[in-house]
Design brief:
The radius of gyration is 24 Å and the shape is globular. The chain folds into three domains: 125 residues, Rossmann fold; 188 residues, Serine Threonine Protein Phosphatase 5, Tetratricopeptide repeat (Alpha Horseshoe); 166 residues, Orthogonal Bundle (DNA Cyclobutane Dipyrimidine Photolyase, subunit A, domain 3), CATH 1.10.579. It contains 21 helices and seven strands. Helix content is 45%, strand content 5%. The chain is mainly α.
Length: 548
């Protein structure tokens, strides 16, 4: 768990030049303030009390952040462009900044290496940082501080509605950590979507109203996505990414993400006005070739801290209060931020580092190569992975019930699934990505996070999309040449884990359906599933070093 280590503040010391030595002049700094690529907020806690006359900001672009997982080009480009724009804003506002570019000739390639060099150069009395979103990064930076014998002041991330300590207190003594109870607690504490002590509309969530498909006519005239043409800074980044990370997956040809606060605010306003009123009912629906639909596309800006969670929630609630958006849509959207983001962050920091190694179902297969190429005859997977590699984006049902579902049913090692999600999505920071993948999607934590595995056959995808219309597979069939691999693997999943799943009260009906299968049908399903796995090319990571 993150602890809030508030070191005693040393007496102010003016920045000056030390006596020259063989290594050249040394600049003495009171606080060297670390700003990471997902902390692009001038109101961050690390900047509280910042004095430009004696403190210094530090930012570094390092290859490690694109190579510890084989980060897709879109993801790397978003971080680098947003960091460079943020640095330009800091300089324009007179903030002193030590910035290390990725292509600097002496760049060590690691956060710890670059921070160690900055400590040696500036000799700070204290290192200050906002709590990071990645356990690995926190340990690396702590190690650098320890090696240099410089105190490290890690401050709470004020971007969130709650602290990790709040979640730990909520979790203490509970046998189950469920979103709904944490979400209700935060609603009551904040007053968001509350009418006095009563939830707006008389109920806590409207999830049952937010599961409709589009039907045969499709989504209709969806407002165009809010995209931004790359400016000169972003174009430089795109060229650098294409050169430096040429063999990484994906493409930046259609790059259009917000990389400044001004752009992020435009995207927020456009969503609230144009999509939020229609978001709720169809938030789980999919449609072939339609990437954006009614979703907000704000997770990236939120996770980079270009937007504050409070201002996003406030904008959505204001739309409801003004009668501009229906309550089910607004509540469903706010639950993702006030509820889900706070919940998964609490899970991550109270369960790490052991959480990363969980594999409750004993999954042992390598990730199919199609995840890195989109080369498959399964229409739903081809569409979701194809758009992921083009845009670094897929909405939550595509992630949970297409790419995630297939990996779960296939039996992929959850650590490889995690590394893929962390690599390919522009909004992926480990605190939010890992619990969503390991816990929600793959049930690898054995129920710490989700009350049951999200297992379904191809019929779910048929119900929620039009993918099956153009696919050669029939979601009603589990065996035979036309059998849908999702359906085959679904029944095989139930068969392989029948004993474990039978003990889960939420899986009872699904497991009971196995009783309808004869021994011959069971054998045929198992054989077809084995054949499908053997015929599916699998590789942990075709772009770099093999993963665990």
């Amino acid at each position: 768990m993150i602890q809030n280590h508030l070191s005693s503040r040393p007496e102010a010391a003016a920045i000056g030049t030390a006596t020259a030595s063989a290594q050249g002049p040394r600049v003495l700094v009171r606080n060297l303030v670390v700003v990471l690529g997902d902390q692009l907020d001038q109101g961050a806690s690390a900047l509280d009390g910042f004095d430009p006359s004696q403190d210094l900001l530090w930012m570094a672009e390092v290859a490690q952040e694109s190579e510890h997982v084989w980060s897709a080009k879109q993801r790397t480009a978003v971080f680098l462009s947003a960091m460079r724009h943020f640095a330009a804003d800091l300089r324009a506002n007179g903030w002193p900044l030590h910035y290390v570019a990725l292509d600097a000739h002496d760049n060590s390639g690691t956060l710890a290496g670059e921070l160690s060099k900055a400590i040696a150069t500036h000799r700070p009395q204290t290192l200050v940082m906002t709590a990071p979103g990645d356990w690995r990064a926190l340990q690396d930076l702590r190690s650098a501080a320890l090696a240099a014998t410089v105190p490290l002041d890690v401050r709470d991330d004020l971007h969130f509605f709650s602290t990790v300590r709040d979640f730990a207190a909520h979790a203490k003594g509970r046998k189950q950590l469920r979103l709904e109870y944490w979400y209700r607690e935060l609603r009551q504490k904040t007053g968001i979507l509350m009418d006095g002590k009563t939830p707006a509309g008389g109920q806590w969530n409207f999830d049952a109203d937010n599961r409709a498909s589009f039907g045969a006519k499709g989504p209709g005239a969806v407002p165009p996505p809010t995209r931004f043409a790359p400016d000169a800074t972003t174009q430089e980044v795109l060229a650098l990414v294409n050169t430096r990370f040429a063999n990484h997956p994906g493409s930046v040809a259609e790059f259009g993400w917000p990389v400044t606060r001004a752009q992020a605010l435009l995207a927020l306003n456009a969503f609230v006005q144009e999509r939020l009123p229609f978001f709720g009912e169809h938030q789980d629906a999919m449609w072939e070739g339609d990437v954006w639909l009614y979703h907000s596309h704000l997770a990236c800006a939120l996770n980079l801290k270009l937007l504050g969670a409070r201002e996003v929630v406030a904008a959505a609630e204001s739309a409801y209060r003004a009668g501009a958006a229906p309550l089910p849509a607004v509540e469903g959207f706010i639950r993702q931020i006030l509820g889900w983001r706070e919940y998964v962050r609490g899970i991550y920091w109270t369960q790490m580092p052991q959480y990363l190694e969980r594999n409750a179902l004993g999954a042992a297969a390598d990730l199919p190569a199609l995840y890195w190429t989109g080369d498959t005859d399964m229409a739903c997977l081809r569409d979701a992975i194809g758009q992921t590699l083009r845009h670094g984006y897929a909405h939550h049902i595509q992630r949970l019930m297409v790419t995630g579902l297939y990996a779960l049913l296939f039996g992929v090692k959850p650590q490889q699934v995690h590394q893929w999600y962390l690599a390919v999505y522009v909004d992926a920071v480990e605190w939010v990505e890992l619990p969503n993948t390991l816990g929600m999607s793959q049930f690898a934590d054995g129920g710490v996070m989700a009350s049951k595995p999200y297992a379904a056959s191809g019929k779910y995808i048929q119900r929620m999309s039009n993918h099956c219309k153009g696919c050669r597979y029939d979601p009603a069939l589990s065996v035979g040449e036309a059998a849908c691999p999702f359906t085959t693997l679904y029944w095989d999943f139930l068969l392989r884990h029948e004993t474990v799943l039978a003990a889960n009260p939420r899986m009872g009906m699904q497991v009971k359906n196995l009783a309808r299968l004869s021994s011959e049908q069971r054998s045929a399903i198992a054989a077809q599933a084995t054949h499908h796995r053997e015929a599916t090319s699998a590789v942990a990571n075709p772009f770099g070093p093999s993963t665990p």
